[in-house]
Amino acid sequence: MANGKQTANTAQKIHLDIAAQLLNAHLPSCYNHIMETVIENRNASGQFTPGNSGNPGGRPKDGHRVADLARSYTTEAIETLVELMRHGRDDRVRGTAAQALLDRGWGKARQEIVQDISGPQESYLDVLKRVSEKIAARKED
To answer: What is the pTM of this model?
Structure first.
């Protein structure tokens, strides 16, 4: 029985080593230390041992690189939006592209809250006082 368990543990370790090699081949080098920690913190069945995490250091600090990469496509993205706005086959596509251009160029428009009140208008403070009085009356009942 012990020999069977050792074989299973060895097979699991080999499986984890292969998985680590595959992941490391496809992940940026900033993730290498995380993968090493993940492999070390697993038991023979591949589950994390108590008190260990799969991401102990948190998310890598590469957000600036992603933002810089996205910004590098700004000109092409704007040109694409202009092309869609001018030559899109569907009115919805043209409208969405035009709206996106306006939002990026001038900022999103403010949204007003419109209140439809029939009868005498009350301030928010008056309404809150009235609601508070109703709640107090229910508590007394």
So the answer is: 0.36
